[in-house]
Write a structure and sequence with these properties.
Helix content is 62%, strand content 0%. The protein has 261 residues and is mainly alpha-helical. Helix 3 (28-60) runs antiparallel to helix 4 (63-87).
């Protein structure tokens, strides 16, 4: 067996053949469009990987593992936001030059991003209609719909720290989105005041949440400046659908108590 090399370890020969512009003759900016979105999917994969670790850490009451992973997810979100700056170097005219080659393909079909939303507790039946059972990964998305979310595991962590978690949250319908709860807010506020080390985790969770909201906002403005009020590719609803999730926090209980601290 030949010695392992950098190229072999990363499977670079395969990776670098995955960018296949469809415009003919090739439009210069289509390569950028493909690479940016492939990179997003790789980061989504890493975020899903990190949140599986966070779920385990939460249920085990492992504060420092959760802190470490949330630092990483927060930093990844900053990179995702920064990538919008690169994509915005592409003008509306540049995008229009190859947009028709996308045919029915649309970012709304990103299974991994929908997985990420479900993992974080933002479950919506409306997102399922943009995916079909024959899409790669659709079975994973269906499974995520009925799995415990990061927030459900967060309740485990709070309980380990002595918090009283309402029975209706422990026994909730897992196919529904997590929602804010006043009792949980009281318990979080108490821990903020009594456990400084736990407050570090809470602030990192808030940082990540803010980063996700920032990315949603930048994504919406990118779409608006690129295609305006047009429908998205494949008939996707474009900006109106994206605005449904704008400024909706993933961890609403952490935001609800800010005025009491």
């Amino acid at each position: 067996m030949p010695p392992l090399t950098y190229a072999n370890y990363l499977d670079l020969e395969k990776l670098l053949t995955l960018q296949q512009p469809r415009s003919s003759p090739p439009e210069h900016d289509e390569m950028l469009f493909i690479i940016i979105h492939q990179t997003y999917e790789l980061w989504f994969k890493q975020l899903l990987h990190e949140f599986e670790k966070i779920k385990s850490a939460f249920s085990a009451g492992d504060l420092f593992s959760a802190i470490h992973s949330f630092k990483r997810t927060r930093t990844i979100m900053k990179v995702l936001v920064a990538q919008v700056d690169i994509l915005e170097t592409m003008t509306p005219a540049s995008f229009s030059s190859f947009r028709d080659r996308l045919e029915t393909a649309s970012g709304f079909q990103s299974i991994q991003f929908r997985e990420l939303e479900f993992v974080l507790g933002y479950k919506r039946d409306s997102t399922l209609k943009y995916a079909r059972p024959d899409f790669p990964g659709y079975d994973r998305l269906e499974q995520r719909l009925t799995e415990r979310t990061v927030i459900d595991h967060f309740y485990d962590f709070l309980a380990v720290r002595g918090a009283q978690i309402p029975a209706e949250l422990k026994n909730r319908d897992l196919s529904q989105a997590n929602i804010a709860n006043e009792q949980v807010q009281k318990e979080i506020l108490s821990l903020y005041k009594s456990s400084p080390e736990v407050s570090i985790l809470f602030e990192l969770m808030t940082d990540f949440d803010e980063g996700l909201q920032e990315w949603r906002y930048r994504h919406i403005k990118l779409v608006e400046r690129t295609i305006g009020a047009k429908k998205g590719t494949g008939g996707s609803p474009g900006v109106p659908f994206l605005k449904e999730s704008l400024f909706k926090p993933i961890f609403p209980d952490l935001w609800a108590i800010r005025h009491e601290m």
